[in-house]
Design goal:
The chain has 742 residues and is mainly beta. It has 10 helices and 43 strands. The termini are far apart.
C-alpha cells in the first residue's frame, strides 16, 4: 500500500544541551596543544636512555657525574636579587629579570671535569615545552653547544660549580621550572621535579635590549620599584589626592598577576611581548566579557561588595581574585588604573597612573560633546546625552613599539576601565602618547579614542521648537584641561599635559587637528561671533554640609545696556559627569549697564543637596541665558568638589626594623546625624599588612579612636594610609609618613 502524499512523522527533537559549553581546544588542529597556563607543568623524565637497555638493564652509573644539590642563590643578601632589583619581592623563589645574568650553584658527586663531563641547566615553562617555541631552553656551559640563552661557569670549588645564565632580552616572562641534566654514555639523567627550584623571569627596564628599557634612573625607580603612589582626582582647579599601596612585591601578588594571563588563555609564547601583554591585561583587569579582576559600579549602591572609595591598595583585590577565581566587587576608574599599575610594575613594565581632568567620553569619534539648550537658553537635560568625566584615570606604560614607525615608542596609554569595546572587548591601548600628540590616530591601538578624551570641543546647541539645532557656542579648551601624574621620587604632582597636546591655539595644535580629521575625526567648524557679555562663576572650596554663596559676575563689554534672563541650575553629579538629581534652579533677570559689571548671588543650602549626594560629592552648576538685545547665548559651567572630613593618622617615633610600633587613627563625626556601619582600612607597604576595624555607630559630634600595633619589615621612608567608609559618607582618608631605621 502506497503512502505517497501522507504526512511524514516528524523526528523527535534532539535534547537541549545542558551545562556549560565545551571548552575550546586545539584537538584536531595541532599535534601539540597550545600552552596557555603558566601554572601547568610537565614532569621531565629523570632518565632518558640513548639506547635499549641490555639483558641486565643499564650498568651502574656511580662512576659518572651525579647531581647532589642545586642552590638557587635566592636569599635577599645574595647577588641575584640585588643585581636584578628583585630584593623587595616577598617570595620563596628566585626572581630575576631577562637579558641579565643570574647565578645558580650546582653541587656534584665529585669535582667537575670540563674535558669529559657534560651537563646542562634546563628551563621549562608551560605544559607543552618545545625548543622551537622558546618554552624549553637547555643552557650549556661555555658555549659547548648552541643555546638561545648564554651560560658560563663563573666559579668552581671542590665538588661545586657556579653557573651564570643569561636569558635573552625577549624571552617569555613567567614562572619556569629548572632542571640540571648530566650526560652519561647510556643516557641523560636529570634532577627530579622540585618546586623550590622554580624561578620567575620578569621584564627588565634596566637592560637596553629589552623592549621596556627606560633610560632614566629616577623615572625607572618610581615606575617599577615604588610601591606607594598618589592618584589625583577632584577638579582641575581643586585637585585632591588619593594615596594607594600598589604592593607589587607583596607575597602572592606575582602569582596573581600570572594567573590573570592564565585566566584569559593567553598563549605562553606571547608573554614576552609587552604590547600583547598590556593589551590583553587591559581587558582582563575589568570583568566585562571575560570574568576579569574587577566589577565596575557607578550606581552608589555597593551592598554586595566594597565601595570603590574604600580600597587603599591592590593586594587584597588581586589575592581575592586569585583565590576565589571570581571578579571582585567594586571598582571605578582609579581602582582599575591602580590595580593595572600593580600588574605592570610587578612584571617589570615601567608604569604610572595618569589623571585627565575634564575627560570626554566620545563614543563616535567626532570630537564633539553636545549640550542642548532650549530657545530661551535653558539647558535641556532630557536631550543632553553626552558626558564629560570630571576626571578620568588611566595608565601609561613604557616600551618600544616595533609595530609602529620610528619615534612612536616610549609612553603608551593603556586603560582598563570598561568604556568602549576595542576589537570586540572592553579594553584600550597600548596607544602611543606621541601618536596622540601629533594626531597620528590611525596607529594601533585606540589612539583615536584617547585623542578625543583630551581634545574634544564642547558645543552648545540651541534647539528650536521645530527641533532644528544651531550651534551657539563652542568651548575648545574645556576638555583635557590638565593631565597629571606623580613626580618621581617625591610626593608632589607633575603636569604632563604638553606630552598629550600642543598649546591651545598654537599653529602646531591646528596642524594636529587637521591631521586627525584626515583620519576621520570630525570637529565643529562653526565660527561664531563672540558675545559681548561674559558670565563668570567663582572657584570655591566647600566642605560637605556647608551652606555657601554662589556669586555670578556678569560683565558687559559693549557700549549699550544689556538685559538677560538667566537660568541657574545646580545638580549633584557623579564624577563621570552623569547627572544624579537637580537640587537648585533659579531664573533671575539681570540688567547690566554699558561697560559695567553686576553680581548676582545665590544661596546654596546644605539641606537641599545633602540628601542627594553621591560618594564623590560633586556639585555641578550651569548658568545660561539669552541676551535680549542681541539674541546671543551666554553660558558658564563650574564644578565644585565638596571636601570631606579627614582621618588623623599618627605613628610612634623612633621606628626600627622588626621592632613594634603603634599607629593611631582618629576621626570626629562633623555632622548632627549618626554614621552607621563604619569600616576603616589601614595599610602601608613594608610597614603593615591590610588591617580593618568595624564601628557600628558614631553619633553626631562624637569621635572614634583606634590604636594598632605593627612591626615594620623594611628600612627607609614609607607611608601608612587609612580610609573610612560607611553608607552615609564615602571617600574619607588620611595618611602618615614614617621613617624606619635598620
Amino acid at each position: 500500500m502506497s503512502n505517497q502524499g501522507a504526512t511524514p512523522t516528524p523526528s523527535p527533537a534532539p535534547p537541549a544541551p545542558t551545562g556549560p559549553p565545551p571548552k575550546m581546544t586545539n584537538r584536531g588542529r595541532s599535534a601539540v596543544p597550545i600552552s596557555t597556563s603558566n601554572s601547568d607543568a610537565t614532569d621531565i623524565p629523570e632518565f632518558e636512555p640513548f639506547s635499549v637497555p641490555g639483558p641486565r638493564g643499564f650498568p651502574p652509573m656511580t662512576e659518572y657525574l651525579d647531581i647532589w644539590d642545586v642552590d638557587m642563590m635566592k636569599n635577599k643578601e645574595e647577588s641575584n636579587k640585588q643585581q636584578h632589583h628583585t630584593m623587595f619581592f616577598n617570595s620563596d623563589h628566585l626572581i630575576v629579570r631577562r637579558g641579565q645574568e643570574f647565578q645558580v650553584k650546582i653541587n656534584f658527586s665529585r669535582p667537575y671535569k670540563p674535558a669529559t663531563d657534560k651537563f646542562a641547566v634546563e628551563f621549562v615553562i608551560g605544559s607543552s615545552p618545545q625548543y622551537s617555541k622558546g618554552t624549553y631552553i637547555p643552557v650549556f656551559p661555555n658555549k659547548e653547544r648552541p643555546s638561545p640563552w648564554e651560560g658560563r661557569i663563573t666559579k668552581t670549588a671542590d665538588n661545586s660549580v657556579t653557573m651564570g645564565v643569561t636569558p635573552t632580552a625577549d624571552c617569555i616572562v613567567g614562572k619556569y621550572q629548572m632542571y640540571v641534566a648530566v650526560v652519561t654514555p647510556f643516557g641523560i639523567r636529570r634532577t627530579r621535579r622540585d618546586i623550590s627550584r622554580d624561578l620567575y623571569i620578569l621584564f627588565n627596564p634596566w637592560v637596553s635590549a629589552d623592549a621596556v628599557f627606560l633610560d632614566d634612573e629616577e623615572e625607572r625607580e618610581e615606575c617599577v620599584m615604588t610601591e606607594m603612589g598618589i592618584i589625583y582626582h577632584g577638579a582641575h582647579d581643586d585637585i585632591a589626592e588619593r594615596n594607594w599601596n600598589y604592593g607589587q612585591f607583596n607575597f602572592g601578588v606575582l602569582d596573581a598577576c600570572l594567573y590573570i594571563m592564565d585566566r584569559c588563555d593567553m598563549p605562553i609564547t606571547n608573554r614576552g611581548d609587552p604590547v600583547r601583554v598590556t593589551r590583553k591585561a587591559s581587558a582582563m583587569v575589568n570583568s566585562r566579557d571575560d570574568e576579569g579582576v574587577l566589577v565596575g559600579n557607578w550606581s552608589g549602591d555597593y551592598t554586595y561588595g566594597v565601595p570603590p572609595t574604600s580600597w587603599t591598595g591592590s593586594t587584597e583585590i588581586l589575592l581575592t581574585y586569585a583565590s576565589t577565581k571570581m571578579p571582585v566587587c567594586y571598582a571605578q576608574c582609579w581602582v582599575y588604573a591602580a590595580v593595572f599599575n600593580t600588574f605592570l610594575r610587578c612584571l617589570g613594565i615601567p608604569s604610572r597612573v595618569v589623571t585627565n581632568f575634564f575627560s570626554a567620553h566620545d563614543n563616535n569619534g567626532n570630537l564633539k560633546t553636545d549640550i542642548i539648550l532650549s530657545e530661551d537658553g535653558r539647558i535641556d537635560r532630557s536631550r543632553t546625552k553626552d558626558s564629560i568625566w570630571n576626571y578620568h584615570c588611566w595608565n601609561e606604560c613604557y616600551m618600544s613599539r616595533p609595530d609602529l614607525p620610528a619615534g612612536f615608542g616610549g609612553w603608551q596609554v593603556v586603560d582598563a576601565t570598561p568604556q568602549e569595546t576595542s576589537d570586540g572587548m572592553y579594553r584600550c591601548g597600548p596607544a602611543s602618547v606621541q601618536a596622540i600628540k601629533h594626531g597620528q590616530i590611525c596607529f594601533p591601538f585606540d589612539a583615536a579614542f584617547v585623542f578625543a578624551e583630551v581634545n574634544s570641543d564642547v558645543v552648545f546647541f540651541s534647539r528650536s521648537k521645530e527641533g532644528t539645532m544651531e550651534p551657539v557656542k563652542v568651548n575648545r579648551t574645556h576638555v583635557g584641561r590638565m593631565v597629571l601624574t606623580k613626580t618621581p621620587g617625591d610626593v608632589t604632582r607633575r603636569e604632563i599635559t604638553d606630552q598629550y597636546k600642543f598649546a591651545e591655539g598654537s599653529t602646531e595644535e591646528r596642524t594636529v587637528l587637521e591631521k586627525a580629521e584626515e583620519y576621520g575625526c570630525q570637529r565643529d567648524k562653526s565660527e561664531l561671533p563672540v558675545a559681548d557679555v561674559d558670565m563668570i562663576l567663582p572657584t570655591l572650596e566647600v566642605n560637605v554640609g556647608d551652606d555657601f554663596e554662589l556669586s555670578l559676575e556678569f560683565v558687559n563689554r559693549s557700549d549699550q545696556r544689556r538685559t538677560m534672563d538667566i537660568y541657574i541650575s545646580g545638580s549633584v553629579v557623579f564624577y563621570t559627569g552623569v547627572n544624579s538629581s537637580e537640587f537648585l534652579f533659579r531664573n533671575p533677570t539681570v540688567t547690566i549697564g554699558p561697560n559695567k559689571s553686576v553680581t548676582e548671588s545665590v544661596t546654596v543650602e546644605s539641606k537641599n543637596y545633602m540628601k542627594h549626594l553621591v560618594e564623590q560629592a560633586n556639585l555641578n552648576f550651569i548658568a545660561s541665558g539669552k541676551v535680549k538685545e542681541t539674541g546671543q547665548i551666554v553660558t558658564a559651567m563650574k564644578l565644585i568638589t565638596l571636601h570631606n572630613p579627614k582621618l588623623t593618622v599618627t605613628v610612634s617615633d623612633n621606628g626600627r626594623v622588626s621592632e613594634e610600633m603603634t599607629v593611631n587613627v582618629d576621626f570626629t563625626n562633623p555632622f548632627t546625624h549618626s554614621l552607621e556601619d563604619v569600616i576603616i582600612r589601614l595599610e602601608g607597604a613594608g610597614l603593615m599588612p591590610l588591617t580593618t576595624k568595624y564601628f557600628s555607630l558614631i553619633p553626631g559630634g562624637h569621635s572614634l579612636h583606634w590604636s594598632e600595633v605593627f612591626t615594620p619589615q623594611r628600612a627607609g621612608s614609607g607611608r601608612l594610609i587609612a580610609s573610612l567608609d560607611c553608607p552615609a559618607l564615602r571617600q574619607v582618608s588620611g595618611q602618615a609618613s614614617v621613617t624606619i631605621k635598620a
